[in-house]
Amino acid sequence: MARTKEVIHKINLAIVVTTFSTFDKLELDLIDELKKSTDVIVVFNKNDIDVIDKEKENTIKQKGISFISLSCTTGNNIEELRKLLVQTGSKIHVENSTIIGDLIKQGDVVMLVVPIDLGAPKGRLILPQVQVIRDILDNDAVAVTVKERELVHAMAELKKPPALVICDSQVILKVSGDVPDSIPLTTFSILFSRLKGDFKEFVNGTRHIDKLKDGDRVLIMEACTHHAQSDDIGRVKIPRWIRQYTGKNLEFDTVAGPYMDKDLLKYNLIISCGACMINRKEMLSRIDSSRTVSIPITNYGMAISFTQGVFERVVKPFKEL
Amino acid sequence: MARTKEVIHKINLAIVVTTFSTFDKLELDLIDELKKSTDVIVVFNKNDIDVIDKEKENTIKQKGISFISLSCTTGNNIEELRKLLVQTGSKIHVENSTIIGDLIKQGDVVMLVVPIDLGAPKGRLILPQVQVIRDILDNDAVAVTVKERELVHAMAELKKPPALVICDSQVILKVSGDVPDSIPLTTFSILFSRLKGDFKEFVNGTRHIDKLKDGDRVLIMEACTHHAQSDDIGRVKIPRWIRQYTGKNLEFDTVAGPYMDKDLLKYNLIISCGACMINRKEMLSRIDSSRTVSIPITNYGMAISFTQGVFERVVKPFKEL
Predict the structure, then answer these.
(1) Where would you tag: which of A195, A210, B184, B242 has the fewest CB atoms within 10 A of its CB?
(2) CB contact under 8 A, A144 and B140
């Protein structure tokens, strides 16, 4: 039960598997708690050896919760459960439905600048880049993908300037020099902080970098425990850039994976990773934590653009501001 | 041991885990068989409770095989095994190193036409499309990705015609109409039949479609047992297109997953899927099977282009012919 409660803040659908004979106050309390933040389905298993309890069925019904009685042994009603899962799942609003649909229109040419460095996976693109290309196609627009070195050449091949340029945060300095001010420019990280997180909260948190003082503590918050490289973005590059930009004597700590709200209290700023390994709900729960303890929060992409002096330009394309 | 022998034709590296005390003729014979077609590493486990046998070490050494003595219990030498794996693995030539590197040059604009139909994965692109975009970037060129509906518009946005257009086989008829004959055009399937398979063998096999006679049998060979859709490409569309094109009364069978060489004998043509789930080595072994029994072999992409009357155009960009 402890492990169940630990994951409530990150799930989008809970399936409570029980039987009519064992269903009791424990299950009822759990369902009430789950209901507050997620969809719930109750599965009464073992209907080949257990008897239907109409009273318990009614209790569930009154709560407006879907339920099904089935048997894993005989396979009875398993197909019905599948249908119920699909039906419930298709109504769950997991992520925002479009990444850049509100920023572009049909026929627009969107330029994506994708550096191929040692960190890039062999023979692939990273998922956020693929998702943006797909979203451009879904919006009846044209995706032009280049490395930063070919960007100027690629723009020269177009009859009109692109409607939008999106680049990796790590090359924003070079790209912002190559792309005329009249062309809207942003980064993949900033696009995804709308999708996974709270854009305005992050923008406000980013501006707090200017208010950091000597001796302040910054928490680098990573979603997963990945294998850190020698020039790790969270552990090495971002602390270096923020120290250089602010000129302040700051202390940086890193937390990877789960953490406790009370551990956040000693920090003056939280910088979260892009959260590629966690879902929107878990990211929002992290932002809630920082809000609870009143600590500004931003993410890698915005912090990088800020320290490179291009922050106002890369958030300009967004109507949220 | 039977299951080990079953996979020899598709693996690129064999790790034989044994101990000094148990290593005997069985292991030696296996190593000799593995050596014929793959790299081999021998791991002597349990070095915390087993003693090193210099004689057995020498036998392995004389065969030119790498080996290591370690303990999974204490963790001794595990890191060394990792290094040995990386070192051996980096020398294995698994797939051709470039997809279109020989077809384009630095700065070229390559147009990719990607239909977004019901079969497309939600919010993504399929892997071959991503791999081609990456290969374009690796060759210092520019990748323009569009749906088939925006293709004409996208070409009009360019100052010069693209150096190459690559489209999904299923839209080749529309795309070949939209792209002037002066612009080289091919399909993703045909590109990948160079990477995963024997291009010339497939081209020859494709032309055999013209020689099919009434009563001939065609084998549709799928690499995996995927969940077939109602308008399944292998089971429904390709048989229909080939019947329409040839006007012959043909019989089609489908085999999904492993098969026996002798089962191929009754067929006049084999049409293989794109093999996205198997590696080059396994695909080449399938082509060898068809060669052994002297049956022409082609793949989905080439067969589709052939039945749509655009085959000679889509193989023209390749110097192999």
Answers:
(1) A210
(2) no
